[in-house]
Amino acid sequence: MSKNYNQSPLPFQGQKRRFSTAFKEALNEFKTAPVFVDLFGGSGLLSHWAKSQYPDATVVYNDYDDYHLRVSNIERTNVLLAEFRFILKDAPVDKVISKEAKAAILKAIKQEEKRSGYIDYITISSSLLFSMNYATNYNDLSKQCMYNCVRKNDYEPANDYIDGIEVVKMDYRQLFDRWKHVPEVVFFIDPPYLSTDCSTYSNYWKLANYLDVLQCLKGTNYFYFTSNKSSILELTNWLEKNLGGENPFSGATKVEMNARMNHNAGYVDIMLYKRV
Ligand SMILES: C[S@@+](CC[C@H](N)C(=O)[O-])C[C@H]1O[C@@H](n2cnc3c(N)ncnc32)[C@H](O)[C@@H]1O
Asked: With contact defined as beta carbons under 8 Å apart, do 245 and 239 qualify?
């Protein structure tokens, strides 16, 4: 593997780039591990780091969102972004764009979709929509107010990003069952954030889903990611203290990272890892 990426090559919400140093340092404690299984692969960043550090190990990346397709289409995405820059060359930066410019952008997207059959809606959203807003298809995108926040530079091609990594796509429970009996396997467990609102979001993660994941921590080697917003550590400590029973985090090493959303709101991202 030639290049070591400190962050995922394309935008991905929830990627663990802030843990770059801490994760790689902690990985040193797993030198003899033959297999790493990234149950909630997301952008594949944890898989990439594991493969870079241990090229001879088997690394399995659960690409639930088909992120690898986005990576293999970077050049196509760059062409589209160049078209947006041309359409918006006289438009003020970070401001809402005109109706005409929006129509021209949508036309360019439609043409490209017809021509190549692939559009990376998430990446182009980050150049056209208000921060943290993402569309995943043409209809979604066409309904939104667009801004001129087009990235100035191309994305770097990242053809080597998942070199040597085994890419799969399935529910994490199925993948866990496939690998749980392999001696010394290490699981990367970074589930979606716990949702507390009543959205109609189809992949809505409620408390029961979040607790189900803890079954993957029983007697396994793992790296687990959460944040103080989920209160999962508080809950497991409370249960252990008051109701008895095993705490899946006992004996784990904890690393905390402060994250800031704006100047008066922040939270703590947490990584726990354990070798049995
Ligand atoms: C917090 S992200 C993982 C981020 C990743 N560690 C990174 O650094 O990019 C959680 C991922 O789990 C995926 N996911 C959601 N439900 C899943 C399921 N049932 N099985 C496996 N993955 C799932 C989400 O689509 C998302 O990509």
From this structure: yes
Angle at 75 between CA 66 and CA 2, to 5 degrees: 75
Which residue's CA is the nearest one to ligand 1's atom 22?
40
CB of 171 within 6 A of ligand 1: the answer is yes
Q: Using a 6 Å cutoff on CB, does residue 62 contact ligand 1?
A: yes
What pTM does this model have?
0.94
Whether 213 lines ligand 1, by a CB cut-off of 6 Å, is no
Of 127, 170, 122, 129, whose CA–CA distance to 146 is shortest? 129
CA of 223 to the centre of ligand 1 (A): 14
| Chain length of the chain | 276
Q: Provide the CA 105 distance to its chain's centre, in angstroms.
A: 27
The pLDDT tens digits of the residues spanning 3-40 come to: 889 999 999 989 999 999 999 999 999 999 999 999 99
Give, in order, the Cα–Cα distances in Å from 109 to each of 89, 196, 214: 17, 34, 42
Instruction: Give the residue among 235, 230, 227 at the shortest CA–CA distance from 259.
Output: 227
Report whether 74 contacts 43 (CB < 8 A).
no
- 37, 40, 206: which to mutate for ligand 1, most atoms within 8 A of CB? 40
The alpha carbon dihedral of 58, 61, 66, 68 has a sign of: negative
Question: DSSP class of residue 251?
Answer: T
d(CA 19, CA 256): 9
